[in-house]
Specification:
homodimer
Amino acid sequence: MDFDAVKNYLLALQDHIVEALQRADGKHFIHDSWQRPEGGGGTSCVLEEGNVLERGGVNFSHVMGDKLPPSASAGRPELAGRSFEATGLSLVLHPRNPYAPTVHMNIRCFRAFNKSIVAQDLQPKQGAEEALAQTAQQVRQARTDESNAVAGVKTAADIWWFGGGMDLTPYYGFEEDAVHFHRTCREALAPFGAELHPRFKQWCDEYFYLKHRKEPRGVGGIFFDDFNELGFENCFALVQGVGDSFLQAYLPILQRRRDTAYTERERDFQAYRRGRYVEFNLVFDRGTLFGLQSGGRTESILMSLPPSVKWRYDWQPEANSAEAKLYRDFLIGKDWLN
Amino acid sequence: MDFDAVKNYLLALQDHIVEALQRADGKHFIHDSWQRPEGGGGTSCVLEEGNVLERGGVNFSHVMGDKLPPSASAGRPELAGRSFEATGLSLVLHPRNPYAPTVHMNIRCFRAFNKSIVAQDLQPKQGAEEALAQTAQQVRQARTDESNAVAGVKTAADIWWFGGGMDLTPYYGFEEDAVHFHRTCREALAPFGAELHPRFKQWCDEYFYLKHRKEPRGVGGIFFDDFNELGFENCFALVQGVGDSFLQAYLPILQRRRDTAYTERERDFQAYRRGRYVEFNLVFDRGTLFGLQSGGRTESILMSLPPSVKWRYDWQPEANSAEAKLYRDFLIGKDWLN
């Protein structure tokens, strides 16, 4: 597998998305590069108090370490504790206008190295710098070993997988927005098999679900993880299809809603519903937990949290109000395309 | 052990604290009783948009179940999966004035029943109602068996423990407030041994720590868990000492700060810092996780979250500002009494 190609694609996608969002907003993102003491780093592109986006982050990272965190090995217990590298692009946009939905998109690629290559040489008593140098050397060694490996299959060299998806979280729902978003997702996946979209759509509904609220996070989209079943080239093409379709999936919705008139009432409901976003990301989200557990950069990880949020006790929308409609017609795990 | 006595004490303490806070605020708490499908229930007392308290909750609960959740058995793996009952009083107050600190107090009592009594009779295929009736019967049986049990020691009947404490989270720090709070905590514990306060103070500093921020939640207080080493009577007396001292620890501080003049700047900093409170409670807090994992009542559990919160990217206080002082002089795990 060509890990560098994935990394370069994600860096180019970050530039492309940031430029398009800047044109839409009229304000510029700041670019903030950081290094991780345990290895790797990233660049966070952040816009706050924009004309359209109240807060938005488009974050690239490439990290490595000598122990895969539990959040990343949950679905693959045989990999617990292996050395790894991971690269990802993660994006959350919180528009100011309550009629414009929040959106999230993520693409990530993991690779875990064969235990026997790494563990025997990394003695716990080594100094941190020496251990890091050795890890880097072993990463290079493992890459060299790749000619012996069959992509996507557990081999002596390593195993890899992709994850990602995108999902939409409206405060006031519009059927045409939900349909457009899901249709774009379906089109992005279509070249790789018609069965993928229903499967990734359902996975998204199951993943972005607030168990303690018995409530979906939004109207869904697509989600996939531990994905390597098509072989590396096809998997990489698939995530490129997803990444390349993001702007097409979201920008028309943002343009349609960004200038809708609103009052304090809608802003208040938006702030209340944003509380659910915080609850999901801090209690359930695998990416957030991976970041915090792997010593990730807190400010970049928590860039996903909304700029202003309200909690209030046991609040219920008035019957038949626009707010009640969100719960009744949109937060129901619906199939938007049939 | 007399579980009912603990429960009755906590109910009386809830009344007492709610009445005192109502006198301080001038507005009344709502009382909201709820039942839990899996057994037990509680009463949440809630005040929102008060004159002094922007949001406050004083929540009593008594719950039971046939499987102790992981968050409660983390420190006692031998109890994983046992049937249990738990009663607690949990309180978080978020004053509106940014010069008045947020405060948290909690007292809880757990008991886990002997596996052999319960597990063999609870067949997984039974209907939920029948299983619940059996659990209730076994709770009664286990209580009857108590004459054979030595308090605080693992026996054929059950084992029990207390947990709790209180901690203070200022937005703008005042040394006299921190000293008064810690001194009151020390006095509450003094009758039970001079070594307890330093131990519970340190435990609090370690527990209320945001690892991903490398930052204490506030100026601390006391925290204890899995506590039964003094025998039931003394442990119960200790938690009563803690509960009874809460108003004395906090009300003078609230009265001193509630009418301090403030501007949007202080409110803004308060909203930003409240984000840390959310992060701690949703990512780390054992009580929150226990509640959410045990099918607790979400609105009562998340009553601890602040009413309005802001996140902003990589914000740092201006050097030598009042906001910088909080980090420099207060969020440092200091010994306030020596």
